[in-house]
């Protein structure tokens, strides 16, 4: 299985990048690629820019990475209760590629975390509502509250309850993805 993981933040110190990377380690038997969305920064989307210059190559490059993955792990940063501007701009550009939705038939494991007690639940609610319209199928999701209290760089999720929930969700995504991949082989 090919797994793609990234934090939906362009911060060089993103806790969501750390969280997505940490969760991707549960898929060590699979082919895992870690992306940083700051590598795909483009001008702020506008119809004028699109009309004058077309869709930037970086949007096509990002879309091809999405298309190559069997499972995509995204950890959403919450900026004022919504997507980060860097992520939103990237998806705005990808959505302008003719004939595609951003997450065209993708299978997703959505995460969020923050320093607060809700763990990015507001952005998670937005993502859960939006993903089907963007072409993605959400297999599982998890919000991790109070990141510094529940996560360590070398250990990942340290709180026993949250770690147990995460590991159950990882097992579910593996089972569901195996069914999906098996069904594709029988076609």
Automatic annotation (TrEMBL):
Gene Ontology molecular function terms on file: FMN binding; oxidoreductase activity
Domain spans labelled NADPH-dependent FMN reductase-like: 1-124
Protein name stated in the entry: NADPH-dependent FMN reductase
Membrane-spanning parts: none
UniProt-listed InterPro entries: Flavoprotein-like_sf, FMN_Rdtase-like_dom, NAD(P)H-dep_reductase
PANTHER family named in the record: CHROMATE REDUCTASE, NAD(P)H-DEPENDENT FMN REDUCTASE LOT6
Domain of life: Bacteria
Pfam families according to UniProt: FMN_red
């Amino acid at each position: 299985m090919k797994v793609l993981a990234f934090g939906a933040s362009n911060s060089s110190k993103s806790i969501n990048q750390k969280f997505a990377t940490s969760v991707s380690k549960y898929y060590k038997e699979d082919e895992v690629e870690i992306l940083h969305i700051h590598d795909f920064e483009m001008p702020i989307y506008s119809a004028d820019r699109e009309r004058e210059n077309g869709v930037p190559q970086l949007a096509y490059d990002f879309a091809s990475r999405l298309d190559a993955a069997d499972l995509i792990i995204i950890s959403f940063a919450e900026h004022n209760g919504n997507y980060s501007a860097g992520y939103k701009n990237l998806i705005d550009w990808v959505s302008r590629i003719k004939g595609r939705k951003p997450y065209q038939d993708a299978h997703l494991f959505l995460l969020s975390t923050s320093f607060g007690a809700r763990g990015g639940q507001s952005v998670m609610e937005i993502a859960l509502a939006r993903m089907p319209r963007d072409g993605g199928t959400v297999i599982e999701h998890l919000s991790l509250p109070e990141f510094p209290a529940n996560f360590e760089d070398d250990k990942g999720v340290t709180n026993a309850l949250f770690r147990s929930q995460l590991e159950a969700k990882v097992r579910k995504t593996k089972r569901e993805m195996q069914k999906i991949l098996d069904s594709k082989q029988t076609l």
